[in-house]
């Protein structure tokens, strides 16, 4: 597990060079954003211990296997921590992969697993957990969320953006790391969510796959422009999806 600190509050934990989760420093310890692939639990707990704080809450950006893969193992080791996920993606943890009325009726993409852990909190956009504001960012999955730390304007985006092999959003494909695009459920909706995040004018961009960017807005703009180019007129559907 590679550990890298960004600013005063964010610690990036990277496994297999491409799969990130994050510890966020709080007054009472750490908030953990995502749990990584299966087998990550021990490394995450050891990282938090080495950095001098307990994990107090587990916050999930979405329910794909590379973000919830170690949820059950972490919960077994940390049974008293808060576990939070969007109300929409919580259903996926229990094996319900159905789409809701009003959602784009296109097949889900990416890998899902059933989890035995019961979330203790279901999140909605605008909620605040620890120091983080929940931002709804549907598209990569129907209930995807990002987390914004107003203390230093760090934005943790899950898979709305990726910086592995170059910054992308909206499901744009990178041949050196195609998995982000291949796992995106509805590209026009993801693109609209990317624009919402750009409008926050973050000072730091932390993503599920790839390096963390400082002063990321120009790079976010480029990724949005590229996605608009590839999606063309279909991007207009993002305005109507939710």
Classify the beta-strand content into a percent band. 25-35%
Q: Distance between the terminal alpha carbons, to the nearest Å?
A: 37 Å
Q: List low-confidence stretches.
A: 233-242
Order of strands, main sheet, comes to: 1-2-3-4-5-6-7
Overall strand count: 15
What is the subunit organization of this protein?
A: single chain
Total helices: the number is 7
In total, the number of domains comes to 1
Averaging pLDDT over every residue, what do you get? 94
Class by helix and strand content? alpha/beta
CATH class: Alpha Beta
Largest sheet: 7 strands, mixed
CATH superfamily: Ribonuclease Z/Hydroxyacylglutathione hydrolase-like
Describe the fold and architecture.
With 242 residues, the protein is an alpha/beta fold. The protein has one domain (2-239): 4-Layer Sandwich (Metallo-beta-lactamase, Chain A), CATH 3.60.15.10. The chain is built from seven helices and 15 strands. Strands 1-2-3-4-5-6-7 form a seven-stranded mixed sheet. A six-stranded mixed sheet has the order 8-9-10-11-14-15, with no helix packed on it. Strands 12-13 form a two-stranded antiparallel sheet. Strand 4, helix 1 (41-50) and strand 5 (55-59) form a beta-alpha-beta unit. Helix 6 packs antiparallel against helix 7. The radius of gyration is 16 Å and the shape is globular. The model is unreliable at 233-242 (pLDDT under 50).
């Amino acid at each position: 597990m590679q550990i890298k600190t960004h600013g005063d509050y964010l610690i990036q934990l990277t496994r297999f060079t491409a799969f990130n989760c994050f510890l966020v420093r709080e007054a009472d310890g750490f908030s953990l954003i995502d749990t990584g692939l299966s087998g990550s639990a021990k490394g995450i707990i050891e990282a938090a211990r080495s950095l001098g704080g307990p994990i107090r809450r587990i916050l999930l950006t979405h329910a794909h296997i590379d973000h919830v893969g170690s949820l059950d193992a972490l919960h077994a080791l940390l049974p008293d921590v808060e576990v939070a996920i969007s109300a929409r993606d919580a259903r996926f943890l229990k094996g319900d992969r159905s789409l809701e009325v009003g959602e784009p009726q296109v097949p889900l993409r990416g890998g899902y697993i059933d989890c035995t852990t019961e979330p203790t909190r279901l999140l909605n956009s605008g909620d605040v957990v620890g120091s983080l504001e929940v931002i709804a960012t549907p598209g990569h999955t129907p209930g995807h969320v990002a987390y914004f730390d107003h203390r230093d304007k760090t934005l943790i985006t899950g898979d709305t953006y990726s910086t592995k092999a170059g910054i992308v959003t909206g499901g744009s494909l990178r041949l050196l790391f195609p998995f982000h695009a291949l796992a995106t459920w509805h590209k026009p909706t993801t693109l609209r969510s990317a624009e919402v995040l750009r409008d926050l004018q973050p000072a730091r961009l932390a993503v599920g796959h790839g390096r963390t960017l400082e002063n990321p807005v120009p790079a976010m703009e480029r990724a949005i422009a590229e996605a608009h180019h590839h999606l063309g007129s279909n991007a207009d559907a993002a305005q109507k999806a939710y």
